[in-house]
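Hey L., structure's done. Input below.
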Amino acid sequence: MRKKSTLGRLAATVLAAGLLAGLASVGTAPAALAGDLPAGAHRIGALVGDKLIVKEGTLYAQWVEEYGGNVAKFEIAGNRIGVLLKDGTLIVKEGDLYASWVVEATGVKDFRLAGNRIGILRNDSSVAVKDGNLSAGWVEQISGVKDLELTPNRVGVVLNDGTATVKEGDLYAGWVNQMGGVADLDLSADRIGVLRGDGSLAVKESNLYGAWVEETHDVTQFKLAGSMIGVVFTNGTASVKEGNLYAPWINQLGGAKSIQISGDRIGVQRTDNSVTVKDGGVYGSWVEQAYADQFRLANAIPTGGGGLVNVGDLRNIYGDAYATDIVAAGIGSLNDEMNAAGITSPTRKAALLATLKHESGFRYNAGEAGQSATYRGRGYIQLTTEGNYRAAGNALGHDFVSHPEDAAKLEWSAKIMRWYWTQARNINYSADRYDMGGVGRDIGYSYDLDPQESLNRCDDYKAALRYFNGGSLPVPDSQIKCLRR
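Output:
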């Protein structure tokens, strides 16, 4: 590991004069909307005392001082950085690390950034959100709020009475109450998570009306990010699960105070305020960063091509949280094997994507978290059992029985998916009949998870099917079979 000093290696400093010039630019916000960070330009932000520093790029990149003092809180999302000053003034910049600041609001208690959205929780407990460029107008949302969360298409709040309520779509959509007794709320892609006052954590996915899945208890803080859920337990252990909502937990480290996840990165702040971050998901290696009072991670959205499915498609269907470097690295091989398997029609593509979202989060290197069995789930399709490892090897000409870890390697993961989808089973048959229940029956996840798991997969299938079919379902909703029989 290579440890970074807190402020000793700053490559550049944003001058106070530049900040003042930015603050003076109220009403002249740039017209451009929030953008993605360039590929590989992931950001880490740290609040050191009341100074904000940010690095961009690798875990060993140099820190840049963004604001020299008086910072109470900050957020980073895409190419935007927001700072809440101690006097309640919110300032935001977008673009590179040296862009000018724009004053957004005063009287602010807390705020969030997500895509083109900025949300503020005022000192009077009212919430307003803007969607667009930095000079867009505010849209009043709700009052009596103690916590606020945003995604590019959802707004969630916890009311003063402990009720969590969420809206989806435009800023004028109606609220849907989720649960009472809530201490904290988080949103990511199609998932909603609530931490109750008793320390128990529940998460739902797919839509606002889905059933809750109890995840764990004795939690002090949590974070949702795509197919990952991170928690800090009361004993100080930071733990993460990856995959579906029923996956087991993988402990990361002890002595933890808070956890952040973005893309393939996981970061932990220890009780001594030291921050360490890893790339590559749950099994990556930690790199020490800084001592900080607060830290945040922002994921650069990669580009990934493919004639059938690309990273942009995954973003459009399931949200930015699933567009990570690991997903992009595998998308080419996935497309090759989809072509070979005849997974080319809207319904076949939708069935595969809904399946991979739940099985592996679209990660070619996914492993069945928390399992030590030799032939545990691996790869896109989560190949399991010695019999399947042997059969896949016989079909593909590789000894997976002796080298089971190869099932989660880029060379083989998509090939195994194609073999299972078309040879071990004929899953295209069910997909062609809009029978997502039949797809699930062939994939073989536990019946103990039904009916909710099958309903969630079916919702994800319908979302992808609408997308690939030009915005509408090709058959009436009643003709789509969701449950396994």
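The radius of gyration is 23 Å. The chain has nine helices and 29 strands.

-- N.
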